[in-house]
Amino acid sequence: MQPFAYQTPASVAEAARAAMQEDARLVAGGQSLIPSMKLGLSAPATLVDLGGIAELQGITVTDSTVTIGAGTTHATVAASAEVQKAIPALADLAGRIGDRQVRNRGTLGGSLANNDPAACYPAAVLGLGATVHTNTRTIGADDFFLGIYTTALAEGEIITAVSFPIPAKAGWQKFKQPASRFSLVGVFVSQGPTGTRVAVTGAGSGVFRAGGLEAKLADDWSAAALAGATIGTDGLNSDLHGSAEYRAALIPVLAGRAVAG
Q1: Does domain 5-54 have CATH number 3.30.43.10?
Q2: Where are the domains positioned within the chain?
């Protein structure tokens, strides 16, 4: 690992200024960036640690929305009785991310900013039609994810919170790669204020919506409605863990299981 400067800002405004330094990187939980640095794949001159910023922490639940601070850990979301009551599928997803260390260190904002193509949280954000709040603006889920490790965030822009509309129905199913515990395929389904949505992670170069499955569930919210549904293989991953055809076959199966609960 190369030497680097380390800064611990106390506010989002201070962090935003620090992030504009040459070759500076923001770090939240560090579950992706630090291993990358250890392997020599990333060598920032300065790390700007967001972990001590109180305004990035916490969960607020209203009658219509669950808002989670970007610095809130996966374990905190999973253990929240309010989240479990309002959006049980979201708490379930958070509780199955990685292992115990990852869940206690990794954060919502860090996961979304990194946008690993097999990460779980992007599926929840896209699958619920959430809104990403930053220090400068708000970004709808459909506009946030731009491809592998790429988002709509500008240089130095910081995610501060995510607002999830509370759906009438939602579910999550994950077929994990057993070593990494990332999603070989993960599917988040919901029906609510943002319509009927099916978001898929792990299968392609980034999270995406499965429009054909959404149309079927909009007509009939049941696992039976997806019987015989197929997904094309164009753009799907094919590797030693599973072919594109395998992943395509898993998507409607997992969507059906998510609907059935």
Answers
A1: yes
A2: 5-54, 57-260
